[in-house]
Structures are given as C-alpha cells and as structure tokens.
Amino acid sequence: MNGEERGTTERVLTLLSLLQQRQVWTGPELAERLGVTSRTVRRDVERLRTLGYPVHAEQGVGGGYRLGPGKDLPPLLLDDDEAIATAVSLLAGAGGALAGAGDAALRALTKLDRVLPARLRHEVRALSGSVESFDGGRTPVDPEALMTLARACRDEVEAGFDYPSRNEVRHRRVEPYRLVASDRRWYLLAYDLDRDGWRSFRVDRMAGVTARTLRFVPRPAPDAAKYVQEGVSNRVYPHRARFLVHAPAATVRAQIPAAAAVVHPRGDESCEVLSGAATLDAVLMHVLLLGHAFEVLDPPELKTRCHALAEKLQAAGSAT
C-alpha cells in the first residue's frame, strides 16, 4: 500500500468514525473535519457503501449524511475507550450478569479479542475485576481462564489445567472443543488426551489454565450442549432413571432446570425424562412433584420402590 492509498484508507476510517458519533452530518461539516473537499467526501461515502455501510444522503434543510441500519451488520469502528467498555460489558454478560446471554456474549468477546490491541488488555482485565453481580446467577469464573479457553477453542490448540478428581488434583491435557453455558455454570467440552475420551469440565473448578501452541486436527465430536447437559443431569449421579411423563415436553422443560434432567418429546402430549440423583427416592420424588401422571421406564427396581412408597403414603394419610 503506497502513501496515497494509506491516506485514503485512514480518511475513510475517520469518516466512518464521525458518522458513528452523530445522527447527521452535512457535507461541508465533514469536509472541514477531514480537511478535504465536498467532492472527496462524496467519493469516500461511496467507498463506505461499497464496503456494506448504509450511508444515506438527504437534501434540504436538516439534511446531510446519516449512517443507517443495513441488511447485514458491518464491522464497527471503536476507539480505545469504547473497545475497553465493550469488552468489560461482554465479560460481565459472559459471567452471568445478563441472563441467558452468556454464550452470545462470549462469542462476541472472542471476536473482539482477535482484534483488541495488546495495550488495552491490561485495562480490560483491571476493569473486569471490579465488576460484581448480586443476582445469584452463575458461579463466578476467572474471566482470564474463560478467555484463554475460548481462544484455544477458536485457534484449535491444546489446553491444560489442574482439576480436582476424587480426593486429588490432577493436571489435564485436552483438545478444547466448545464452551457451554448452563443456567448456573460454564463447562468445557474437550477431548482428554490422557484418558483418550470426551469429557466435560466445570470452568470454575479449573486452576492454572493455559493454552499451548500445539495445534490439533478436530475429531468428530458429540453435540456439545447435549453431551454436557446429559452429564450434568444424570451421568455423574450414582442412580439414574427414565420416566414417561404424560405432559408435553415444552411444559415439563419449563418446570425442570436444564441441569436437572434431559427431556425428549414422545408425541405431542408425552415426553421422556432422564434424570439422576444420589438416591432413587430423590429422583422419584422430583418427578412426582411435577404434578403429571407418569410411568417408570428404568430401572426395574424403581417400580418396586414406587409401590413401597405408595403404601407408606397411604398409611400416613389414613392415620388418625
């Protein structure tokens, strides 16, 4: 790029920044700010339109150049303060301050991270450390760890961290695949290189999270959200059960947190519920309290337990 092209590019970026700062600019106002002629302003406006920015021109009193909404979302031009504020806000959203927006916030933050100048990273970290939430949302996680894992997923490089397993902490080497947000926590779906299999890890339980430079070829992976949800709701528990609930799947999903059970539709008026608990009685009571008619599908011993508990409840109701 020669000096003339570089000057044009810088001027067009300055023009874009001005259009993002104010509703309407007249041609002479822009020409004065840019130090060029009105004809050059018109040419630069056409360059922005070619790049996908919907710049509208209106004649008459109160008219001028205005940046409007477009069919697609073009890149935004942010100054240092705006970039820092955006990154900190996205970190707060990823941490759960914005209900239901955590995964979208992290995706946006990962995109911003790719182009964020190194000189701004320290300020983002310092400011994010002062952001608190009082709504009892997600379990707090280290934003730096979350971003390190997000970068590793994006760049397809190995990651490592210390993770508690039974009564000891072990170092895990993984190929990170996806970060998954539940209603309370962040999880990482990754291929565990030492155990040769897919695993899900709670990000808030990790320590010493690092990303390596060794790249990997992604393996065929399970559905990330489904794998993590099934693991959280039933695979980790000593007792698991399946029920046929006579109510629409949407109704039952609204009653059960995603971390507590997996709900599959079985026609329009029934659904299959998979859940786990420390005891069979606990999982049975959880489904009973939903208030719908249901049948026990698995395990067989849970049906026997139903009869025993029914006798106790009937006896309790008959006592004088």
Automatic annotation (TrEMBL):
Any Pfam family from its record, for instance, is WYL
Name of the protein described by the UniProt record: HTH deoR-type domain-containing protein
Enumerate the UniProt keywords alphabetically: DNA-binding, Transcription, Transcription regulation
Q: Which Gene3D superfamilies match?
A: Winged helix-like DNA-binding domain superfamily/Winged helix DNA-binding domain
State the Gene Ontology terms under molecular function: DNA binding; DNA-binding transcription factor activity
Task: Tell me the InterPro entries matching this sequence.
Answer: CBASS_pafABC_assoc_protein, DeoR_HTH, HTH_11, PafC-like, Tscrpt_reg_HTH_DeoR_CS, WCX_dom, WH-like_DNA-bd_sf, WH_DNA-bd_sf
Domain called HTH deoR-type: residue spans: 8-63
